[in-house]
């Protein structure tokens, strides 16, 4: 999260072009006293779902400077992915996979030249 600096952004949509690869979209959807929630995706749309892909819904804890993925696609909250009867071990394993994905993706984005200094607000 040091890469994108969500704690410095207001509610709204931002775009980063980077040095190579696809444009990155970041949408800050909610700010609270101790958290910032945002969506992170490429400017690509999945032909089947019509949704940005890949995408992650992220909650950033301002005091701890820690981020966690709450969903990896629109409509893919844990109960949608695993069902309401998933046991604790399944939920924990799923959450760990989502957060590992975010860590690898952020590292890749940094290698592609994306940063908070390259984010520009979109009109709308």
What does the average pLDDT come to? 85
Alpha carbon gyration radius: 15 Å
Number of helices: 2
Quick one: overall form? globular
Q: What structural category do the secondary elements indicate?
A: alpha+beta
Order of helices and strands: EEEEEHHE
Summarize the structure.
The protein has 124 residues and is α+β, with helices and mostly antiparallel strands. The chain is 23% helix and 29% strand.
List the main descriptive attributes of the protein structure presented here.
single chain; 124 residues; alpha+beta; 6-stranded antiparallel β-sheet; 2 helices; 23% helix; globular
SSE topology sketch:
Blueprint: E1 12-16, E2 24-31, E3 35-42, E4 55-61, E5 66-71, H1 78-82, H2 88-111, E6 120-121
Antiparallel strand pairs: 1-2, 1-6, 2-3, 3-4, 4-5
Provide a descriptive summary of the structure in words.
With 124 residues, this protein is of the alpha+beta class. It has one domain (6-119). It contains 2 helices and 6 strands, in the order βββββααβ. Strands 5-4-3-2-1-6 form a 6-stranded antiparallel β-sheet. The model has no long low-confidence stretch (mean pLDDT 85).
């Amino acid at each position: 999260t040091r890469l994108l600096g969500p704690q410095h952004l207001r509610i709204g949509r931002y775009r980063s072009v980077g040095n190579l690869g696809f444009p990155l979209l970041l949408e800050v959807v909610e700010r609270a006293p101790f958290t910032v929630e945002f969506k992170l995706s490429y400017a690509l749309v999945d032909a089947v779902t019509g949704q940005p892909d890949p995408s992650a819904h992220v909650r950033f804890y301002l005091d701890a400077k820690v981020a966690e993925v709450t969903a990896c696609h629109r409509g893919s909250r844990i109960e949608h992915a695993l069902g309401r009867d998933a046991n604790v071990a399944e939920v924990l394993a799923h959450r760990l996979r989502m957060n590992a994905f975010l860590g690898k993706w952020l590292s890749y984005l940094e290698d592609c030249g994306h940063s908070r200094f390259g984010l520009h607000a979109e009109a709308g």
